[in-house]
Amino acid sequence: SNPTINYQLSQGDQLKTLNLYLRDHAGNIAQQQQNIQLDTTPPVISAISTLPPYNNSDSLQISLTVDKPNEEVLFYFLSSTNQTPSLAENWIAFDQNSLNIPLDFSGVSGLQNRYLWLRDGIGNLTPLYTLQTTIDRNPPTLTNFLINEGDNFTNSTTVALSWNATDDVSG
Predict the structure, then answer these.
(1) What separation in angstroms does the CA of 47 have from each of 81, 104, 129, 150?
(2) Average pLDDT over residues 22-46
């Protein structure tokens, strides 16, 4: 027969050893031992760069450093929505502790959020990291630039400059 039972492992991320003993009606005993590593700890982003508050570029990148002992491959997921991705989504694998992730802002403007998750190979997921910047593609409006209130001549090497300026996004 092929019975299956659920078994509760003890707490603590470490190697667990389970022994199974079977005895038949005649008193004969069979024994097998299996090990399994309990890992409930997600990767930890120990350092992450921030985005500038304002930007006029189509692309930026963030740099991050990840701590995750005993893992060869980790995965990241970047999205413009804050919905937690499933394990079936298109996660991007990486195998080093430092990583640069490109962010695309083509065709968008205004306040932009990008959401980042990391996970390990068995699905332990980091908390959501929110990356935020404002894309401002419009230059400030500059009017009434004057030297010495509009004078055409001066006899001084020091002049007074004045102007009016407005910027509807980044100020």
Answers:
(1) 23, 21, 12, 52
(2) 93
